[in-house]
Amino acid sequence: MDENRLNILKESRREISRLQLLSAFFEEDAVYKIYLRSQVIHQMFENNEELDIEKLDLFHVQFTSSVIELLRKIKKSNEKNVSLIYDEVHLNEELIAQMNNQLFSEKAFHLDKLKQASKVNLSLRRLFEVLSDLSTDFPFSKNINAFSSRYAKDFFHAISPDELGLLTNYDPKNTYVSSYATIERKLMGLLCKQEFQTEFFCGLKSGQLVAEVYKFLDIDRYFLFFPSRNLFLFCDLSVLNKIDLSANRSEKEKLIQELAYKNDKLQANAAAQKTFIPKEIIDLLEENYLKISDINFIDHLNNFDVQANILKAMLKTDLF
Fold first, then answer.
1. Is 226 in the same domain as 150?
2. Are the CB atoms for 219 and 63 separated by under 8 Å?
3. Are residues 109 and 242 in the same domain?
4. pTM of this prediction?
5. Burial class of residue 109 in the structure, from the number of CB atoms within 10 Å of its CB (0-12 exposed, 13-18 middle, 19+ buried)
6. 78 lies in which domain range?
C-alpha cells in the first residue's frame, strides 16, 4: 500500500473520530447518521484498493470537514449561551443565600421582639411604681436599648425628621416625669387598666434616631417608646400613613422559592441549550446525509461542489 493512501486513510479515521465525538455530544439523529455513513464510505475505500483514494480525501474536504467545523461553531456558541445561563444561576444562588441569612435574622428578630416587649412592659410597670412611690430607683430593664441597636438597620421603617417630630411632640403638662423617664398621664392610666399587656408593633428610624411602637393586646391603641429620651407617648398611626406598616418580611421566603424555581428552569434550559442545533441546520444536515447516501455519489463526487458550498455558507451565517 503506498504511503499517500496510508496517510489519506489515517486522516480519514481522524475526521471520523472527530465526527463521532460531536455525534455523541449533540445526540442528534442527523449527525449520527452522517457519522455512520462516513464510516461506511471510509470502510469502502479501505477495503477496495482499486477505488481512487483521492476521492475519499475529496469527500472529507467537501463534506466531513465542513460538517465538523459547523458543529464546532454551534457547540462553541451554545457553550457561550450556557455560560451566561449559569452566570445568572450563580447570581440567583448568591441572592438566595443572602436572603436565607436574612430569614435567619428575621427569626431572631421575631423572637427578640417578644423579649423586648416583655422588657418594656416590665420597665413600665416599674416606672409606675417609681412614680407612685416618688422613688429615684432606675426602672428600666437591663439592655433595653440593645434591641433597637441590633435591628434598626434592617427591620425598622424609615421616616422623615418631620414625622418623628410629630410623633415625639407633647405637652409637658400632660406627662409624668421621673429622674429617668417621661410618660403621658393618660398612657400610664391605660397601661395600668390593661395590666401592662402590650406587644411590639414596629420600629421606626430617622437618621441615627430610633423609636419603637407598641400595641395594646386587647384594644386598637398604640404608644411610642423613644429610647434616646426615655419618652413614652400615645402614637397616632395616621402620621405614618405613607408607610406600609403591615409589610410582611416573609415575602422573602416567597422570593426565595421563585428564584429556586427559576434556577431549576434555567438549568433545564442550559441542558437543552448545550446541545441545541437550529432547525435550518438540521434540515441542511439531513440533506447532506441524503447526498452522501446516494449509491452513486462516488461517481458524481466532483459534481457536489454546489452542495458543499451551501454547507460552507452556513458557517458564515449570523445564527451564532
1. yes
2. no
3. yes
4. 0.56
5. buried
6. 3-88+277-314
